[in-house]
Amino acid sequence: MAKTKESMEIDNFKSTADLTSNPGFQSSLSIASKSVDEKPYNPFEHRTVEHPNSTIGSIVHLLKCCLGSGILAMPAAFKNSGLVVGAIGTLIAGFICTHTVHILVKVSQEVCVDAKKPSLSFAETCGAAFTYGPKKLQPWGNFIKVLVDYSMVVTYFSVLCVYVVFIGSSMKEVMDVYMPDNPLSIQAACALTLVPLVLICQIRNLKYLVPFSAVANILILVVFVITLYYVFLDLPPIKERELVAGITQWPLFLSTVIFAMEGIGVVMPVENEMAKPQQFLGCPGVLNIAMVIVITLYGIVGFFGYLQYGDFVKGSITLNLPEEDVIAQSAKALMAFVIFLSFALQFYVPMEMITRKRKGKESRYENLIQIVIRTVLVTMAVAIAAAFPNLELVISFVGAVFFSTLGLLIPAVVDTVYNWDNNLGPFNYVLWKNLIIGIISLIALFSGAYVSVQGMIEDFGGHSLENHEFHDNATLT
């Protein structure tokens, strides 16, 4: 009997062991072993980019995106903050803008692993963060994606309007000097930009815009050298300028700085088309290298530009350069050309969404349709720019309404939602940190928009009054 019992125990043990070898059954041990052996999805290995950008090319694109008309508006921003507040505020705003770009790209790379997709656009990243976030928010994924998509189009379309105003203002400044008997109106100057802008916006590949960005970066350095020469020429003492401006003007400073530094819409296309996207984040990384250069230049131009010209500084400091000097006039013309070359890069953002929406709907007239869409968008931008030509107020309004929302609020919300069930860090510091960023963005949104719109209304009323007086004088004559 003892021998029989021992035989049964051995058989029972053997039959249990056979369960794991049965193909119809898997123990938890075998599943765990399989998950350990399975290689995690790496989105970088699955990216097939037809024309990938190098690391240097990506830095060039980011610099060109940020070193545009915004940096020349920094002295006007310092006018609304004072030297001390402006210097400290530029550093803080630069850190926050860099951080929001960082968390957006980080979430995008992580959610690519969850979705098993090689790359995601800005809008797709926001939608996927909700889809793979808390269960209660998952149904909102598609709505958020569509919302951000259209917000991007409106935001960067408004940037195009700012660029048209800048080019038109610079052209007017130069042409009025050499044609004093026939001064050009700002509306006519904006209209003259239409045909060249339509032509350059027919370029449809980001890689082919790299040479334009490279040339623009070289030219903008020339403009900076010329501008800084006049800025540092016979600088007045610091005591003649406000160190701390009235707090009611701070919203204009904040929204102008946000407009100047934010390149949130170009970030994801640049990262997605890198040959080595793993080099975008990290230290030093493409993002950090570009933003350190940007913040340094912004601080220098803003501080010393306001110190030189004080309350007379204009929406672009190049417009303050002396009219009698040929070199100064050439700087204005070069800067207008730089913004012209940058226009196509900013135009790429709304067109990327439109092209993506049209995927699968192509017809044999697709080339003609693309030409018409691009022509219509540029024409609309020129028309709106001609209607609101006050550069300083337009920049402040765009920064307050669009970039504070798109560049600060949305990345903070997306990062919080995606990490809600994953990891909010010790003491939920991710939540509190993003809450602070959200509050800052809302302050910039409401206060900056209010002050900018108020200024636009007063400015529009002033123009109307001037026109009325002009007609009255013409009638009397």
TrEMBL record:
Presence of keyword Membrane: yes
Keywords from the UniProt entry: Membrane, Transmembrane, Transmembrane helix
Annotated Amino acid transporter transmembrane domain residues: 53-453
UniProt organism field: Mythimna separata
GO molecular function: L-amino acid transmembrane transporter activity
Bilayer-crossing regions: 146-169, 184-201, 208-232, 252-270, 282-306, 326-348, 368-388, 394-418, 430-451
Main location: membrane
Superkingdom assignment: Eukaryota
Protein name: Amino acid transporter transmembrane domain-containing protein
One Gene Ontology cellular component: vacuolar membrane
Localization per record: Membrane
InterPro entries in the cross-refs: AA_transpt_TM
Membrane topology summary: Multi-pass membrane protein
Coiled-coil stretches: none
Database matches in Pfam families: Aa_trans (PF01490)
Keyword Nucleotidyltransferase appears in the UniProt entry: no
